[in-house]
## 1
Amino acid sequence: MATWLRSAVGPGGAILDVGGASGQLAALLAVALGAHVTVLDPEAKLLAHVPEGERVHIVMGVAESIPSGDGLFDAVVATDAFHHFRNQTVAVAEFARVVRAGGAVLVLDPDPRPFAMRLVALGERIVGEPGALLAPEAMRALMASAGIDGECTPEAGAGYRFLGTVRERPISAQLDESLDLSLPCTRRTET
Ligand SMILES: C[S@@+](CC[C@H](N)C(=O)[O-])C[C@H]1O[C@@H](n2cnc3c(N)ncnc32)[C@H](O)[C@@H]1O
C-alpha cells in the first residue's frame, strides 16, 4: 500500500487513515513512508489500541465531519471502511477538503457485484450497518464529482482499490473560501 502512496507522501508527510480502527495499517505506513499517520475512527475502544507514538496519532470522529483544517494531509486512506460511512457523498467531499491539491485518496473496499458480497452487504444491513457497497464505476463517479480523479483496480479477494488525486481547486473557488462573502449588505436609504 505504501507503494501506491509514495508519489504523494514523502518522508515527514501526513496521512489520514479514515476508519482506521486500532491503527495496524497506520503503524505500517508510518514506518514504510516515514510519514505521520493520523487514525480517525468513531470508536474509542478501537482507538485505545492504536500504537500511538512519534508518528502515529489518533482523532475520534467520523468521515462525514473530519476535525481538520483544509488541505492539511498529503493523502487519505480508507480500507474496508468506506461502506460503513452513513453519508458517502459528504465523506468524499471531506476527503477532497482535507487533502491538499495533488494529494492522494486511496480506498480499498469490497466489490458488491459478486453474489457472495451482496450477501455480506445484506448481513451488515441486518445488523444495522449501512452496508452500502459501491461498484467500482459508482465509486469513480462519486469521487470525480467531489474533485478526486482516479481509477479502480481489482484486488485479490473480491475487492478493488480506488486510487485518485485531488484536483486543483479553481482560483474562483479558492477566493470564495478565503474571503468572507457573508457580510450583510447595508441598504442606503435616501432621506
Ligand atoms: C471493518 S473496520 C476496518 C478497519 C481498518 N480500516 C481495517 O482495514 O482493518 C471499519 C471501521 O470503520 C469505522 N467507521 C464506521 N463508521 C465510520 C464513519 N462514519 N467514519 C469513520 N469511520 C467509521 C469503524 O469504527 C471501524 O473501525
## 2
Amino acid sequence: MESDREFSDLTLSRAECPKCRAVWINGQHTWATGAKGNEEDLAGLVCNTLGNHQCINPKKGVEGGETWEKRLEEAKKFADEHEGDWWNK
Ligand SMILES: [Zn+2]
C-alpha cells in the first residue's frame, strides 16, 4: 500500500527548483497540476533550456524526454494533415 505509507510519512519533503519552479514531493517530481511528473520530460521541456546550476532536476541535460521541437513537429504534422479540411470549412 504505497499511498498509505506516503500519507503516514511524517518526513514529507517538498523541494522546489528555484529555476523552473518544478516541485518534488518526497523525491517524486510533480507537475503544477498535481499530476505525477516525469523528470525527463521536464528536462526536455524546461530544464535543458532554462535550467542553470540552480536547477535541481536530476535529469537536467538528459535527452529523450518530451521537447518543444517534438511537440511542434507533431502539431505541424497534424496541421498539414488537416489543412485541407480547414480550408473547406
Ligand atoms: Zn529545474
